[in-house]
What we know:
Elements: H1 13-23, E1 36-44, E2 49-61, E3 66-69, E4 75-78, E5 83-88, E6 108-118, E7 124-129, E8 136-139, E9 142-144, H2 151-163, E10 172-182, E11 185-197, E12 216-222, H3 224-228, E13 234-236, H4 241-251, E14 258-259
Parallel strand pairs: 6-11, 8-13, 10-14
Antiparallel strand pairs: 1-2, 1-5, 2-3, 3-4, 6-9, 7-8, 7-12, 10-11
Amino acid sequence: MTGGGPGEGGAAVGPRIGAARVRYRREVGPDDVGRRVSIRHLVDDGDGPRPTDRVGRLLAWDDDAVLVVDRTGFVHVLDPTAIVASRIVPPHPRVPAEPEGGTPDRPLPREAARVLLLDDADRVLLVAHLPGDGRRVWTAPGGGLDAGEDHAAAAARELREEVGLDRAPGPWVWERTAVFAFRGVTIAQHERWFLVRLGPGEAPDAAALPVADPGTAGGRWWALDELRAVAAPDVLAPAALPTALARLLRDGPPDAPVDVGA
Length: 262
């Protein structure tokens, strides 16, 4: 409300403010998994934090990540510390319900894009993900497609958001489909990987990446020999990453995307 003043008799503003506070109170928590919720959280797209609402079925809630699936099937991963309001909402009578699933027997489908980012020394940039089972999974920068986005556009957006580089992705070199659990939610994810090569002096500092997604733990540049020596609890995704990368470095980008497995 801007330029507001008391209404007739000086009593109109207070009730409107009180109603807004009731509507956007924080009332959702871990016990509400499975229910339809509206969550208002702060996002920062470079112009400062602004509130954004996510409406959908609550899939998971813990101290590090909140997962909500909307009616299009997109899984949103939210930072609990950025949530400013939440409430339970009833099903909408005129729009489709959010998809069921997220269990091992009914995984949620998800389309994603990743960037195989190589520096001038043939090192690859990977980001650590914490799925919530004690492991640390290293994979390339990337994530799910936004509504109306294709894979190449998603790869370019993720490169800006997670690495801070603004450039078009190169060739589509790999693809994979993997079924995995993240914070107890089972996802069947199909990924396209796009190659981006950097010249001398262009590689960003992995310790200063802008990636701050819930459930992530920073990035690191990896040499091929270091990938081959990875030991538990670290995990590579895909597991065939060292073999596939060695082949790409030896033979160059393939004529058609290569399936690199799970």
